[in-house]
Amino acid sequence: MIELDKVAHSYGGGDLLTDVSLRLAPGSFHFLTGPSGAGKSTLLKLCYGELLPSAGQVRLFGRDVRQMTRDDVARSRQRIGVVHQDCQFLDHLSLAENVSLPLTVSGREAEAGDDNLSELLNWVGLSRQADALPPQLSGGERQRAALARAVIMGPDVILADEPTGNVDWEMSLRLMQLLVELNRMGKTILIATHDLNLIRAAKAQVAARVLRIKDRRLHLAGANL
Ligand code: ADP
Ligand code: MG
I need a labelling partner for 11 at 20 to 30 A (CA). Which of 45, 46, 62, 117 fits? Predict the structure, then answer.
């Protein structure tokens, strides 16, 4: 699905990431950890073509991002659902409209239908809030709306950047449960988080690999977190 081969990335100074190789196989579940500032968000951006590597190769669905046009990248993005760290919404649109925005923008609104949307909102437990405006939502509701928006296009891969950043433990577990369910439906999942307790909780349910960024490199973390 997504492959990084000896990738480096720099924002202009020295390398932030170096010699990073990673293969997200179909149906796999990965966590990405590392201290704040280690480059987790940067690595996710490399995985969906938002950033280009300064060395090495990134392949999205078998194609080198450097060889892809902007349209090619945009098309690949339809197969990659991203839950952004700051989960921004358009405050003048309802939650339901925000969630379906990717469909509206890509002109696929008609084919998807309202049933799909209400089913999705029901799945994340936000049916009652469908008409609410984003400023009226709690942190946990926003995170679940962001997850719904990331999956509305029916992506093959879901990349989540600190999806449990601003929510309590119970809501973290609930979000994790949703991501585990998506994985059971066959989706490939990569979650950046620094919450080791959450990783431990998830590992009881799913065969997840834990990757850690340390000293600019990506390491496979051992069994004892
Ligand atoms: P993490 O998600 O692990 O906290 P980030 O990938 O967000 O780490 O950032 C890693 C480092 O890169 C930080 O020091 C950050 O300040 C820097 N950085 C992130 N984005 C940019 C950017 N657009 N320009 C310059 N530096 C950046
Ligand atoms: Mg980050």
Answer: 62
What residue numbers bound the domain in which 103 lies? 92-154
Same domain, 63 and 100: no
**Three-state SS at 20:** strand
CA of 162 to the centre of ligand 1 (A): 14
Task: Tell whether 145 and 42 lie within a shared domain.
Answer: no
pLDDT digits 0-9 by tens, 90-147: 999 999 999 999 888 887 776 666 778 999 999 999 999 999 999 999 999 999 999 9
Residue 86 located in a structural domain: no
Residues with CB under 6 A from ligand 1: 11, 16, 34, 36-42
Q: What are the Cα distances from residue 208, in Å, to 33, 93, 194, 201, 221? A: 13, 36, 15, 11, 11
Nearest CA to ligand 1 atom 11: 37
Percentage of residues in the chain having pLDDT higher than 70: 96
Statement to judge: residues 166 and 58 lie in one domain: yes
**Can you tell me which atom of ligand 1 is nearest the CA of 213?**
3
Hey, which of 7, 32, 36, 42 would you mutate to test ligand 1's pocket, going by the most ligand atoms within 8 Å of its Cβ?
Answer: 42
118 is written with which tokens?
Answer: 């209400």
